Amino acid sequence: MAKTFVTLFPPAGNTHLTKDVGQIPAAMHRFHGYHSQLVAYNNDHDYPALDTEAKGLELVFLNKAGKRYFLENAVIHYLEKHAAEIDVLNLYHLDRDTMYYGNLYKKLNPKGFLYCKLDLYNEFLVAGRKQHSINVFKNAVLRWWEKKFIRNTDLFSVENRQGLELMKRRYPACKNKIIYLPNGVNSAFIEGLFSTPAEKEPLILIMSRIGEGIKNHEVLLRVIPRLRLGNWKIAFVGPVVQRFAPKVAAFFQEFPHLRHSVEFVGPVTDRKEVYEWYRKSRVTCLTSRHESFGIALVEGLYFGNYLLGTDGMSSFNEISNQSRFGKALPVNNDDALLAALQAIIDRPEEVDLLRDEAMAYARRHFTWPVLVQQLEEAIQKQKLQGDAH
Length: 389
What we know:
- This protein has 17 helices and 15 strands.
- The chain has helices spanning 14-17, 20-32, 73-82, 96-108, 123-126, 136-152, 161-170, 187-193, 218-223, 245-254, 271-280, 295-302, 316-319, 334-346, 348-352, 355-365, 368-388, and strands at residues 4-8, 35-41, 58-62, 67-68, 71-72, 88-92, 113-117, 155-158, 178-180, 203-207, 233-237, 262-266, 283-285, 306-310, 326-329.
- Strands 3-2-1-6-7-8-9 form a seven-stranded parallel beta sheet, with helices on both faces. Strands 12-11-10-13-14-15 form a six-stranded parallel beta sheet, with helices on both faces. A two-stranded antiparallel ribbon has the order 4-5.
- The longest helix has 21 residues, at 368-388.
- It is globular.
């Protein structure tokens, strides 16, 4: 009978299936023979990724049953019924509901394996341990839960090496059971889509939820009119959030001549079309104030794009190979962004020379087959150590 790998992530929708939440269990099924399930509420009308990038993953829907304080009754009922059947339970984030569900799982299945993917912003750890509540009494209780959770968790992973060291320093109890494990792309799926390399165009790609506050796309609206674009184009691919739409309209009203060079594409749900944008672009640009990882950078790197990010991105050094394949700019710095973009536009041959090396680096370090191999090895190692004790 196949081992079970269950990712518990109640808010998951179809978009999560193409990210770590869906890709890890799907890859653990494909490459390591697990019976993999993602447990969530039925948040979307359709889940097309189950037939494409998340093939082999089983989606299990929770029935809404209200809340007990901040806890989901449906999750508690699910664990009470199924914990004993779960070989590996995968949870996300070091927050209070994760701690409760993890502790409950280990109480119900002491021999089960608990894996927590932290998805951390490093800034939260620089000053010290995470504060779970501003109420002193509540925070003390949650710190006790936290201590128990760290003891109960068999394996943690974090997406960047600085975060790894910060976790070891702030939470010494986890130092022998935490690994660096970044996010990746589904190389097996992508290779089945394209048989020949794409012709690169003079195109700068912004792939995101356009206008989301943390993404700081306002800086691009300020900088783009100052660029000497020549034959270069800039594409914003993704849904435009409501609050940002008036800013886009005002941008084109003030700079109508840029309609030929700047495009707001809107949402793209077909994954082949998403990857087509990466294939034909030369640069992937993220201007975020903060990112725990930044999957768009890895997807761009996989297709050989030069990366522009910010120093607010915790994983930029790892993704860019210490800035060999990109540049981290100061957050919200117009002049720095202008200079970086203009340098690429004026001298594209300099970034083109790095393309093959960047693609090879991405395939070695940021594909799910490679990453779940590392995860499975870490799981087996921790199990052996647990058996030895």
